[in-house]
Amino acid sequence: MDFTLLRNIISRYCVGEENWVDSRTVYIGHKEPPPGAEAYIPQRYPDNRIVSSKYTFWNFIPKNLFEQFRRIANFYFLVIFLVQLIIDTPTSPVTSGLPLFFVITVTAIKQGYEDWLRHKADCSINECPVDVVQQGKVVRTQSHKLRVGDIVVVREDETFPCDLILLSSSRHDGTCYVTTASLDGESSHKTYYAVPDTMAFRTEQEVDSLHATIECEQPQPDLYKPSVLICEFLHVFYSCRPLGAENLLLRGATLKNTQHIYAVAVYTGMETKMALNYQSKSQKRSAVEKSMNAFLIVYLCILISKAVINTVLKYAWQWSPDRDEPWYNHRTENERQRHVIRAFTDFLAFMVLFNYIIPVSMYVTVEMQKFLGSYFITWDEEMFDEELGEGAQVNTSDLNEELGQVEYVFTDKTGTLTENNMEFIECCVDGNVYIPHAICNGQILSAASSIDMIDSSPGGYRRVSQRISKLDNKTHLLESSEVYFLNPDCVTSTNNTSEHEDLFFRALCLCHTVQVKEEETVDGIKRGIHQGRPTSFYISSSPDEVALKLHTRIKTLGKRFHQRLLHVLNFDSVRRRMSVIVKSSSGDYLLFCKGADSSIFPRVVSGKVEQVKAREGLRTLCVAYRRLSESEYAEACHHLTEAKLALQDREQRLAQAYDIIERDFVLLGATAVEDRLQEKAADTIESLHKAGMKVWVLTGDKMETAAATCYASKLFRRSTQILELTKKRTEEQSLHDVLFELNRTVLRQHCLDFGLIIDGATLSAVLKPNQESAGHGNYREIFLEICRNCSAVLCCRMAPLQKAQIVKLIKASKEHPITLAIGDGANDVSMILEAHVGIGIMGKEGRQAARNSDYAIPKFKHLKKMLLVHGHYYYIRIAELVQYFFYKNVCFIFPQFLYQFFCGFSQQPLYDTAYLTLYNISFTSLPILLYSLVEQHVTMETLKREPSLYRDIAKNSLLRWPVFLYWTCLGVFDAVIFFFGAYFLFDNTTFTSNGQMFGNWTFGTLVFTVLVFTVTLKLALDTHHWTWINHFVIWGSLLFYVIFSLLWGGIIWPFLNYQRMYYVFMQMLSSGPAWLSIILLITVSLLPDVIKKVLCRAMCPTATERAQVGCFANFQKFGEFFCQIFVFFANDETIFFGARK
């Protein structure tokens, strides 16, 4: 039940008006404003306590019981238990209450333990020490005692305890560096800026003397859209300054490369942005769970039908006055007139008698199987990565079997298929291509060093030298380049090219987020260690920038240029570019811009666009610039200041300002980097194809780069016919014509191997909702039809939201396939959450994908074993578990149904109360649980060697209705054999050796004994992988049943008000015919299933069964080989008897 609305109402009327106004006022240091400045209204805010737990000590029992009884099966058994308490039923309430109590207790213990762990984690966070400035001194307190307005001191490598506004920093320029890996998954260092008016504060006394307020919006979960205004009081007057995301330090982020900072708390506790993003993931349900619910409804209908049939037949049988009631129990006239009430109570009594056909213990067994089975992934040594020092992780165990049902795999490219380790390949400046190595056209240039930039354009080679001398946040110093020509013919065109080269490298040096860092630890991985000694290294928010910096440190000649950084137009995923405005030493204003080609080219007014376009298969960043006049710079400052001052819609206004400023560029050139393919990525994709899965690559890269990676990873083969559905093609033809043309192509030539390439712009047009009514047909269905006939699909230039839309589109198609999404970055989280199964890669783009996924693996290559081995085993095991549970319950209850025809429908139970209670809890539970944990129908090596075996279990093949019907019919057949076999064998009155006759409890015990042995041996016949623990549990369960029956019937228990089972089991075992009946009935019951398996394997074996035969043949050959060795040594007397005589 959601109490959010009630909590909001209470907060609104009890806490204060600030909870529902648009903004809040924070008094820094809790200092009241000067007299006459404004009215001081003290406001109350929540403390800094974080609560992620679900229960408390007081509400655990009622809340947990409420949640558990929301499950239909639990609620059903609760109703049955209450019926047994209210009316006179044929079985004791213990028979339903004890299994229900067991299930509820086990589940409550599991959930309580998990919540206790959350409580421990909350306490460790809430009790962390925090330094607060109070009365000019630093006081240490606990995190949960922080209040809005407190001035906090945070030191290097410490985590921010709440959302803070940066007041000042130990760095002279008022900046600090922060990693947000635990918040948004990005492990790169981000730069944050102090409030300009307070950045000069260096001591606690100076910070504590500040009199100011902060106006900010009410808490909202968006991480990057704060609207903050700081107002500093100067006597009666005060000044206002806008603040943005670059001033807001979020809880969970970590301070890096900065000694300490002073900051003021603006959001605390559950109002911090991190806490507001604690939203529960949508509950994913596996196909097996859906099948279980469908089967449960069928069995519920069977149960109701049985109760109705028996109720009707009871009154039909009693219609005759002779069969009304025995003479000693005749009903009164009043009782005879209450037909409806009597019939209803009889119906409920039959429901209670047959309710065991619904396997309540199946749910707890399935939960235990999923929970315990998930450890096999965690313990898998083959999925452990030495470099990361981590193995696979399981974030949810509810989807283990879904790993064996995947039909579509959606994968990111960068960092997932590739290593996300960029290598600088070349750059193009003003149409001239430069490479960073000393090899050009296959020839080694002896005059060039390994870090020289060699012009490889037609007409000659020349060497360009460039190096960053010094970088800081206010002044960037750039040493100009001097060009050396290896071919004198190039000198004639040097002037303009040299100027563009200078501007090009100046843009690379200024327009970036690179920092220099010593040794550090990111996500547990140490960086900056070389041969045991700390060294400097580059860190950045983009691996492309690090690659560029590593290859532009070159010998310097010439004079220095002093560049003053004026404005930074930060990168965002919508614009796909970043810009800086600088003022050179000569007084010129320059706007440098760097970004994706699709975002730069439309804004270019001059430059060699065609020559600058990168070569196929490389990631490119285009570099452009624009000279600004005094008036243009003033106008740009006006737009930026106006947008930053806005408290409402600040992001939209900033985007509009950026759009106005970033125009009329002169294209300087482009850089090209390459991302290497991950180890065994191609082998993994090839195995997934053989397993029948369709692999789609969803990436933000351009088409040429992504296509080259797809060919390298064997997603596309050389024989694959590529179909393009791109913006370029739709500009030449209408989208309608292109779609229908591609559809005709794939339908006419269905025997060919097709691959589809589509870009984000075209996908948006295809998915437009108004297309369905545009008169040209449903574009979505046509697009899906094309995709169904393609073995692989590449989606390039995709936004994160489009990735999720693609996954959702495939999920909602008429086939309803099982989808899997895998990625490593924060931009992949949307598709990971959308897919049926989400897998995160522990990559270099942080851990948000791994944290939001269902499973996390170190490398893409581990996906092969995750699906083909673990997924295969999980599905086989749980499918057998579900079918077996329904089968053994049919065997259990159907003899009870048949027995009513022989006892006048009197609701007399066939089995004793103890047997009814313990059948699913003790006698038959452990063997199937162990089977579902350790069964291996084929070896791991076979599954990895033959990926096509995955096809045998595709589309939920083991839980389809024909298979379910077979198991149900098999259960009915066995039940008929149990009941009528025992009935006809003891048709005549049977005497034991001492002359006693068998009674109804002996008959029921005989049927129950055959039942327990048959269902247990049935599982033994289905077991392929035998270990000592299998033998212990299976034979131990049978032995436990025998010992329990001997004790239960061999002792007079004083707490029982009846002794009907006394000596019954021993009496049955003392009879020779009973032993013969048990053996004969077990054999007859198991024979049809054995014959069916033998015939199916002989006539139409599946690929899995053929693999099992192959494994057995290999084992047989292996055994023959050892037999030959033994015979050889046995014949050699020198081995056993010494030297021959």
From TrEMBL:
Signal peptide: none annotated. Residues 129-273 form the P-type ATPase A domain. Pfam families: Cation_ATPase (PF13246), E1-E2_ATPase (PF00122), PhoLip_ATPase_C (PF16212), PhoLip_ATPase_N (PF16209). It comes from the Eukaryota. Keywords: ATP-binding, Cell membrane, Endoplasmic reticulum, Endosome, Lipid transport, Magnesium, Membrane, Metal-binding, Nucleotide-binding, Phosphoprotein, Translocase, Transmembrane, Transmembrane helix, Transport. It is found in: Cell membrane; Early endosome; Endoplasmic reticulum membrane; Membrane. The active site is at residue 412. Its main location: membrane. GO terms for molecular function: ATP binding; ATP hydrolysis activity; ATPase-coupled intramembrane lipid transporter activity; magnesium ion binding. One of its GO terms (cellular component) is plasma membrane. The chain crosses the membrane at residues 294-317, 347-366, 914-934, 964-986, 998-1020, 1032-1056, 1062-1087. Residues 42-96 form the P-type ATPase N-terminal domain. Mg(2+) binds at residues 412, 414, 824, 828. InterPro entries: ATPase_P-typ_cyto_dom_N, ATPase_P-typ_P_site, ATPase_P-typ_TM_dom_sf, ATPase_P-typ_transduc_dom_A_sf, ATPase_P-type_domA, HAD-like_sf, HAD_sf, P-type_ATPase_IV. Its cofactor is Mg(2+). The keyword Iron does not apply. It catalyses: ATP + H2O + phospholipidSide 1 = ADP + phosphate + phospholipidSide 2; a 1,2-diacyl-sn-glycero-3-phospho-L-serine(out) + ATP + H2O = a 1,2-diacyl-sn-glycero-3-phospho-L-serine(in) + ADP + phosphate + H(+); a 1,2-diacyl-sn-glycero-3-phosphoethanolamine(out) + ATP + H2O = a 1,2-diacyl-sn-glycero-3-phosphoethanolamine(in) + ADP + phosphate + H(+). GO terms for biological process: phospholipid translocation. Its EC number is 7.6.2.1. ATP binds at residues 412-414, 545, 571, 594, 619, 699-701, 797, 803, 827-828. The keyword Lipoprotein does not apply. Residues 850-1102 form the P-type ATPase C-terminal domain. CDD domains: P-type_ATPase_APLT_Dnf-like. Belongs to the cation transport ATPase (P-type) (TC 3.A.3) family. Type IV subfamily. This is Phospholipid-transporting ATPase. It comes from Amphiprion ocellaris (Clown anemonefish). The lineage of its organism: Eukaryota, Metazoa, Chordata, Craniata, Vertebrata. The gene is ATP11A.
